Amino acid sequence: MSTPIADFPAFLAPSAWYAAHAGARYLQLADHVHAAIETGRLPPGQQLPPERDIARLAGVSRVTVRKAMSVLAERNAVQQRQGAGSFVRVDVGAPRLDQTLSALTSFTEYMEQRGLSSASRVLLAGVFAPTPEESLTLGLGGTDRVARLRRLRFADDAPLAIELSSLPLDILPDPGVVSQSLYAYLKRFGRAPVRAIQRLTATELGPTDADLMDLPAGRAVLTIERTGYLANGRPIEWTRGVYRSDVYNFVAELRLSP
Ligand code: 16G
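A: This is the predicted complex of the input protein with 16G.
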């Protein structure tokens, strides 16, 4: 690994990155910063100087810096945080996380097993009239209502998934009380699923989810639908989620049928 950059004025000086007739300035600047990220001279989590300082040191306009930064964000090399500036992206994706398809684990347990901290941002928690699909999947009656919980889920501070869970009200009367693990909460009352059926599909990230996950729209993701059942066979959880496909690996053990 090369030594981290301590001297931004020298790193950004035009002589360090600009060559006449070698293409647009913003691309040359983006390539220069990108190369430093790839070789580890700019380590993950490193904050880049403010736009106006980069412009001054590199001898370019702020518009050029902004264009270079959006190229780096599109390439997933930097992360732009509103009001806080640009940072070298922390990639939770190396190595990939293997999830066994045969074990029924919660997001929280799964991250714990891998030594990662997990956190959630609740995007929605409430009680609603069910959609026909929710009624069908959860076996709800005509007047039943449904609890919905939509969460952005983080592993070591990186957004990894967005999950929308629907549960019958007798299983989860108030989705607002789930602050961390849904399964840990359900377990406390003996209502956690003991079996689940999952469907995995490869999809592309839509613009709203892309914003939330801080990824470019159109990025390939895994869409996973899980229906969780109690021991008596009653369906009590229907979760639809998008998961970063560059970090999630699903591993299934297969046996020859007798
Ligand atoms: C997992 C489950 C999801 C479940 C959640 C509970 C998959 C694909 N999905 O993310 O269905 O609702 O765990 O996690 O594995 P929690 O107990 O940490 O809230």
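The longest strand covers residues 118-128. The longest helix spans residues 25-38.
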